[in-house]
From TrEMBL:
Gene behind the chain: trpB
Protein name as annotated: Tryptophan synthase beta chain
Task of the protein: The beta subunit is responsible for the synthesis of L-tryptophan from indole and L-serine.
Pathway noted in the entry: Amino-acid biosynthesis; L-tryptophan biosynthesis; L-tryptophan from chorismate: step 5/5
Cofactor(s) needed: pyridoxal 5'-phosphate
Organism of derivation: Thermodesulfatator indicus (strain DSM 15286 / JCM 11887 / CIR29812)
Amino acid sequence: MDDTKILLSENELPEAWYNIIPRLPNPPAPPLNPQTKEPVKPEDLEPIFPKSLIEQEMSPEPWVEIPGAVREIYKLWRPTPLQRARNLEKALGTPARIYFKNESVSPPGSHKPNTAVAQAYYNKEAGIKRLATETGAGQWGSALSFACKLFGLECTVYMVKVSFEQKPFRKSLMHIWGAEVFPSPTNRTQAGRKILEENPDSTGSLGIAISEAVEDAATHEDTNYALGSVLNHVLLHQTVIGLETQKQLALAGEKPDILIGCVGGGSNFAGFTFPFIGDIIEGKLEAEVIAVEPTSCPTLTKGIYTYDFGDTAGLTPLLLMHTLGHSFEPPAIHAGGLRYHGDAPLVCQLVKDGYIKPRAYPQNPCFEAAVLFAQTEGIIPAPETSHAIKAAVDEALKCKETGEEKVIVFGFSGHGHFDLAAYDAYLEGKLEDYEYPEEKIKEALEALAHFPKFPTGL
């Protein structure tokens, strides 16, 4: 096929989300109650989540039907294009064929509304009036603000302070869609006040912002918590990305040899790759799956696989994941969506089982790849997305050396229209690379010595 864009009609929009849990070689480890160290009961989660999402969290069903109201809203931007990066291929001189799944065409500019719309729908159905959440770079916060406005819900966003200051127009977008936005840590919650007492100059982290949002939800009866990544139901909703990509590659007459996505918490990566990984597990596909993270927050590449809190204050259940320790506070890199101390348990399990290969890059080489992409394909990538592009470029250059005509497909998780200050810093030579010191990682991990390790047999 010679088309640059492989498109699907709205009638081809997936009717169900793809659940990888029943397809895993081993069942996922349950979240644990931090007090009893026993598996969390569904009723333990009801103060912050609707029952429908709790059921999806550990659903044994291979497919979960997408509600009609959610599918109708999806049609505002879905199905998204699968695009052939022909100009990038020419610039690299590679025989590889490079495709990217373009999630930047959604109203908030990223993959995040795939789950934001679903979560807002289920909370509205449960009679909830307000959702509280955190956001790093602002992609998730803007997506949930958008979804809440569509379903008539109020929205409160705790935005990591450094991103709040670096990305003012993300804040503007949230305000346009009616959300209230606060730089985290704040004085609004006990968790925030404690952090500020210990470090008045804290630039914040996703772990801190999660603590504030969870506390807000747990202390207000009409409010629930919404999470943009990590949890199973969030990854489930994102699988519309991979399902569409499979159909589009089939139309193009292609099978992927390499699948690439950036990873912070894991939602865009999982949504893009899980349908393919399911095929790999079942022996229907042979492909390499690469998860890319920043060297400043090397969770999959340098973290340990153990139970840990998903937040800084220790308000969440314990999750089995690769982690740098919930007290870890990463440096203020521009890829704010990748600055999280842990990763989605399902992604981590697949890394441990060998189905996913993690890799880490500093931010300057990623911005270099992003600028090349913008100059050849015309779209300015989000700093998070630049990590996937860097890996795709590296793999394409390997093909140039070997002469292999591999099919490389990566997830283009969002545009960088609100990140131009970061590009200015890069172009002016003011962007610093940061590899988090081994001794600081070790220090953060020592606090986890008493936490349960993964169960025997996993």
